[in-house]
């Protein structure tokens, strides 16, 4: 079963606006990762945040992790139409090697 | 970053036939490979984990006799869908992880294979 739950399920914004997606999980984790998937394509790794980190930046991406609330957020600033895709969080549990994916957020950025 | 390829990118087959999907890590050695299945507008569901030279570990509910996984080398894993049926139609994605053993190892994903069973 999927560990992660993401909200919103779908998000539609205008170019230039910021997009925030949230992810919650249930078990103890070693790290949390965010991936992007264009329709019908494979996954692209965006960013990884370790369990002892609280915030991480990469370009226009900002990820936060709150292990006390078992939640993470992905912020995309100054969004572009090319950011339109599905975004998934995935957790690496402390007990094993598997990567468990959330349900995903479909982001649409309108030009 | 590291590259993982899959072949074929799409396949259409008749019900009852078997289909083999290849997953290759092109510029690194993958000690562990993962196979996922993704139905339309849904998330990725892990099917099995395979380590080079050993039997795959299947997730609960995944039939090991139907989804045969072979990880014969550090750069190649294959998934064979045996006696495919229309309900097996899905997007199959492989992922490879290089040995390091650390919790922060990145998994690299292939582009996926779209299987359609008629």
Tags for this model:
heterodimer, A: mainly beta, 59% strand, globular, B: 118 residues, mainly beta, four-stranded antiparallel beta sheet, 11 strands
What does this structure look like?
The complex is a heterodimer of chains A (111) and B (118). Chain A has 111 residues and is mainly β. Chain A has strands at residues 5-7, 10-14, 19-24, 29-37, 43-50, 55-58, 61-66, 71-76, 85-93, 99-101, 105-110. In chain A, strands 2, 4, 5, 9, 10 and 11 form a six-stranded mixed β-sheet that branches. In chain A, strands 1-3-8-7-6 form a five-stranded antiparallel β-sheet, with no helix packed on it. In chain A, strand 7 (61-66) and strand 8 (71-76) form a beta hairpin. The N and C termini of chain A lie far apart (36 Å). The model of chain A has no long low-confidence stretch (mean pLDDT 91). With 118 residues, chain B is mainly β. Chain B has strands at 4-7, 10-13, 19-25, 30-38, 44-51, 57-58, 67-73, 76-81, 90-98, 107-109, 113-117. Chain B is globular. The mean pLDDT of chain B is 90. Chain A binds chain B through residues 2, 30-31, 33, 35, 40-45, 48, 50, 88, 92, 94, 97-104, 106, and chain B through 1, 6, 32, 34, 41-46, 49, 91, 93, 95, 97, 103-104, 106-112, 114.
